[in-house]
Design brief:
343 residues, alpha+beta, 10-stranded antiparallel beta barrel, two-stranded antiparallel sheet, 3 helices, 49% strand
Length: 343
């Protein structure tokens, strides 16, 4: 089904090229060559942004709870969080082969090459291609070259009726060199132990379910890359100039949560499933080719990802305050530390 959707999408983009060709008198071979280049740029863009998109899910879905217990009717839990996501080496690069491309070839005669993801570093990899016999080139995108991603945020949880809490989260825009990202969201948690709790067993094992929604905006800026002739003539212009990739992520999380108090400590764990929608857009010099690249890039918008994650945490309570720590495990390991104040 996905392959059919990709073909249909490129067919529509191909009509755009056909119109361009008819308007400017270009040949049918131009249409075919340029459409093949579009497909290859989408392939490279997908490999470049996918790790950063997955990382955004772990960041935005972490620490929506600190306990399976309810905050308490009309009570408030206000918290300040520090979130850190180490970037494993496996998520910093991806490999492409000549057999993956419709038009491009890896420069230097290599059959495959490792290139950076958005979380990786620099590269000197180039890809060569032809349009109507003319030689063109494109350098691989370069990443932010960081060993971890960190951001602070504030969160407030309010207790309602029936041992149900609602939470809201705000993160200021965080800069990584010239790139930036921001997270907003909300959640609702419902305690299930209330239906089976025996009188006098206040410190029994607590069970709850949680549903959250997070919006993650990631703006990746880098030194501009040009799709241009290998040996450009004086006064010639590139096919396209790209200097950014914008990722708009929407993530839903459903979790089963368990927690248990022991003296001043509270231990918790959860299992969750995420459903994530990503939208991508290339930024750069305005022009027809950039518009067509973004039309082709919408093929990735339809790839809604389902993921799984686990969390383990421990709290330490003192008076109206408590410290919470949590680690999310899965494709990434996300760490969260927070100071809470209960009103």
């Amino acid at each position: 089904m996905q392959t059919l959707m990709l073909k249909n999408r490129f067919k529509k983009v191909g009509f755009g090229f056909a119109f361009l060709c008819g308007s400017f008198g270009f040949s049918q071979s131009f249409n075919q060559d340029a459409s093949a280049v579009l497909s290859d740029v989408v392939l490279l863009s997908k490999g470049f942004v996918s790790s950063a998109a997955d990382a955004s899910v772990y960041q935005s879905s972490s620490a929506w709870y600190s306990s399976a217990k309810s905050v308490g009717k009309f009570k408030v839990d206000f918290s300040i969080h520090a979130n850190v996501l180490p970037i494993p080496k496996s998520q910093k690069n991806f490999e492409v082969s000549n057999t993956d491309f419709q038009s491009m070839e890896i420069r230097g005669g290599a059959q495959s090459v490792s290139v950076p993801t958005a979380l990786g570093g620099d590269t000197n990899a180039f890809f060569d291609f032809k349009i109507v016999g003319q030689d063109y080139e494109m350098q691989a995108f370069e990443g932010v070259d960081e060993s971890f991603l960190a951001h602070p945020y504030v969160q407030a949880s309010v207790g309602l009726w029936a041992a149900t809490d609602i939470s809201f989260r705000y993160s200021p825009k965080v800069k990584i060199d010239v790139s930036d990202y921001q997270i907003l969201g909300g959640a609702i948690k419902h305690n299930l132990t209330q239906y089976t709790r025996k009188e006098g067993s206040e410190k029994s094992l607590e069970i709850a379910v949680l549903l959250s929604y997070s919006k993650f905006d990631l703006d990746l800026y880098f030194d501009e890359f040009k799709l241009e002739a290998t040996n450009p003539q004086p006064g010639s212009t590139p096919l396209a100039v790209v200097n950014s990739i914008i990722v708009d992520a929407n993530s839903w999380l459903f979790q089963f949560i368990a927690s248990k108090e022991y003296k001043k400590f509270e231990f918790s764990g959860s299992l969750g499933v995420t459903r994530n929608d990503f939208k991508y857009e290339l930024g750069g010099d305005e022009g027809l080719f950039l518009d067509l690249f973004n039309q082709a890039l919408t093929t990735l918008d339809e790839e809604n990802k389902i993921g799984f994650k686990g969390d383990v945490g421990v709290n330490y309570h003192f008076k109206k305050f408590y410290l919470s720590s949590m680690v999310s495990l899965g494709k990434f390991a996300n760490c969260n530390l927070a100071l809470h104040y209960k009103i």
